[in-house]
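Quick one:
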Amino acid sequence: MALVQETVAWLTDPAHWAGPNGIPARLTEHIVISAVSLLVAVAIALPVGLYIGHTRRFTRLAINSANVWRALPSIAIIAIVLPITAAIDPQSGFKFYPTVVAMVVLAVPPILVNAYAGVSGVDRDLVEAARGQGMSERQTLTAVEIPLAAPVIVTGIRSGAVQIIATATLGAIFGFGGLGRYLVDGTAQGDDGQVFGGVVLVAGLVIATDLVFAVLQRFMTPSVLRRDASLTTVSA
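Output:
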């Protein structure tokens, strides 16, 4: 009970909602680095996933490589990349870029694998029918496969976003800001209210992000698939 009271007291203290170290500023930092990391991960993983899902080429190589990325500890990646990026850019290279690199490595596997699974799982009869109507490979991918695979693709991006937001707190260990700053500083100061206040804020951001992607996923699900899912649920 005392811990809950300390956490509530810390979160409701007006002093913690103003200034460069205030909750709005730290929340903005966390959102920015998470958004940048997710966009870079999508730019890398989505084209690869769509390509191997459509062509069925290099599937084993791409999936195995993604699994290797998945096994890499984020904190180790930050520690390895930091000296390199710091030498290139003494300002952002010490705090911002190492965390971004680690978060990109974390998010690429679920995005790539889900993009592949979504496209490769589209009914091949529909694909062949599109080709039979004279559609090019690009048109078949963009007009048939991607719309039908969209819910699975968004699931991968959703998973990557949630993992990034939850793990970006590690950047604070190496001097970056964000919500992880409250966990690091609170631990160093023995301030449990600050530590668990940071935990609550990170959890809240994760939940909010997950809900946004859940709505987006439902919006991007073709109506025919939603009807099929509803019929399956009723039958069950």
